[in-house]
Amino acid sequence: MGNVEFKNVDLKIKKENILTDINLKFEPGRVYGLLGRNGAGKTTLLSLIATYRKVTKGMLTVDGQDPYENADIMPLVDFLHPEDYSEESETVEDYLQLAKRYKPSFDMGYALSLLNEYNIDMKKKMMELSQGQQAAVDASMGLATMSPVVLFDEVTNGMDAPSREKFYSQVLNAKNRENRVIVLSTHIVSEMDYLFDEVVVIHHGQVLVDEPVDEFLDRGYQVTGSIEDVDEFTRDKKVVNTRTLGPTSAVSILGSPSKEDEKMFDSGRLSYSSMRLQDLFINLTED
Predict the structure, then answer these.
(1) Which fold has domain 4-216?
(2) In 10 A of CB 286, how many CB atoms?
(3) Element (H, E) at 278
(4) pLDDT confidence bin for 241, thresholds 50/70/90
(5) CA dist., res. 59 & res. 69, Å (int)
(6) Residues 80, 145, 136, 278: is their CA dihedral positive or negative?
(7) Where exactly are the structural domains of the chain?
(8) How confident is the prediction for the chain on average, in pLDDT?
(9) Contacts by 86-92 with C-beta closer than 8 Å and gap 24+?
(10) Phi first, then psi: what are they for 63, rounded to 5°?
(11) Sheet harboring 57-62: ordered strands across?
(12) Lower CB density within 10 Å: C or N end of the chain?
């Protein structure tokens, strides 16, 4: 399986610019964190890969081909997003059998092992499951179809914390992960950042960031110490977040520490660490 690639892609809907000049490449063996505020264009971008829409301008290719209405490419892509199952009378078991029928690469044994971690009754109708259980079925299906391109759009919505942790572990250990493109679009940045190999930030329909997660985190750092020492240290710096607990303060700062700053860390008065991905994301997308 080759790459998913956007070259100078625009999308207009009813003459409104939704996506503008998108240049991206998603490669197999990588997990991509797709971040953006509400209305930024994340779901729309994923819908283009899933062939729900056709680009207005530019070129989108999946494995070197235009995916739109392409019978050879469409089965290679799975797009998982919150669904309304309120009238879905099929059981979970029926749902799996349908996937097996329409997805030649579907791995039934793998699907059952993933679902088993959520203790879901296979005989229950989809409409009878809680929202979190429905989300767990979707998440498991997305991994078990074994499709070369898997797009998860807020797929953990409705899951409780233990279920989300199970899903994160399943992504890290995904079967045949090295040959698959996995994209996770989420608002729960603080929980999922350790899953990402690369970060893509969409803002107002444009690509704001597209880089490996370690490079992204180098854009800022965090300093912890006494409130007095931290206040002195940050006097001429761009602070984007401050947290205090009693006499201790922790701040997130944009930029890189200077040689003089490093001497302060060596003195032991302040401790240094990478900035949280969530803090960087919030700051970069502030208007």
Answers:
(1) Rossmann fold (3.40.50)
(2) 9
(3) helix 277-284
(4) confident
(5) 14
(6) negative
(7) 4-216, 218-284
(8) 93
(9) 86/127, 87/127, 88/125, 88/126, 88/127, 89/125, 89/126, 89/127, 90/125, 90/126, 91/122, 91/123, 91/124, 91/125, 91/126, 92/120, 92/121, 92/122, 92/123, 92/124, 92/126, 92/129, 92/137
(10) 55, 40
(11) 16-26, 4-13, 57-62
(12) C
pLDDT in tens, 112-125: 999 999 999 999 99
Q: For 52-90, what is each residue's pLDDT tens digit?
A: 999 999 999 999 999 999 998 888 999 999 889 999 999
Which tokens go with 115?
């679902």
Length of the chain in residues, anyone? 287
CA gap 189, 211 in Å, rounded? 16
**Topology of domain 218-284, per CATH?**
Alpha-Beta Plaits (3.30.70)
Cross-strand partners of 57: 10
- Exposed, middle or buried, 173 (CB in 10 Å: 0-12/13-18/19+)? exposed
| pLDDT given at position 262 | 86
